[in-house]
Hints:
Layout: E1 3-9, H1 13-27, E2 34-40, H2 47-54, E3 61-66, H3 72-82, E4 87-90, H4 102-111, E5 116-120, H5 128-145, E6 157-160, H6 161-166, H7 177-183, E7 189-193, H8 210-227, H9 232-262, H10 274-302, E8 310-314
Parallel strand pairs: 1-2, 1-4, 2-3, 5-7
Antiparallel strand pairs: 3-8, 4-6, 5-6
Amino acid sequence: MDLSIVIPAYNEVESIRPMLQWVVDTLSSEAVSYEIIVIDDGSNDGMWDELQTVQGQFPSLKAIRFKRNYGKSAALSAGFDKAIGDVVITMDADLQDSPEEIMPIRKMILEDGFDLVSGWKKKRHDPVSKTVPTKLYNWATRFMSGIKLHDFNCGLKGYKKAVVKSIDLRGEMHRYIPVLAAKSGYKKIGEKVVKHQKRKFGTTKFGLNRFINGPLDLLTVSFITRFGKSPMHIFGFFGILLFMLGAGLFAYIGGLKLYNMYHEVYSKNIATMSSFYIALTAMIIGTLFFLAGFLGELIVRSSSRSTFEISDYIRG
């Protein structure tokens, strides 16, 4: 299989049929074999019925249905699990991504050797409430990751199959797939300016929570890409540091008390000194940090990939 086109969708019943037709019409003149994988992320607008209806019209269609809305990361992860194409393309189902970009992105991967090609919606047709936070997140991600992309969150991307099979998407990490791919060793990441269409049907699925989730996800991906495989490296370091500082301060206080007692010099009771409680607290917190790192190591070694419950599957 040459191409797998993965399309996560949530309440896009009006746009899914024209989206599929647009993809098929675009690829009909190309000498490539392909599959289209649509993930119904718990839609409640009748989209699954629509997918069942059009399945006979589009033989290349495969569809996955979640029992409830798990989010875009879970939808992409399910699509990546099923994808068998040598090149995997992701697109949104809202008709804002143009299928005409599929073959140029595939060419960049196969001929130019990119592991991942990210779309850049240089000219956007979104409200200011969406474009301004997007620009801030893109700047922050470039600064923290060192990956020079203009649009990390663009839904239109292309990957080598090995890339999508190696990354582990959790939470809302789909925004930072290029960062996860780079940390997995796939560092040749390209960018292509793509057309951004105006939304024709429905409304955006991203609400005010993105103002909170975006920065938190960025902090999370920065942490897990550095310490996700070895949490003891950071928790153990700070745990030992705090414990040693606390133990050193306690040794100083205790040693000074013993010295004064030996020379019959008056000194305060250790239990009445604030420095005693500072030392005790530092040792306790240091021990907790160390235990957190130890437990983190156990969890990392026993954890599996994100789970989601699929209720139906159209094999195509």
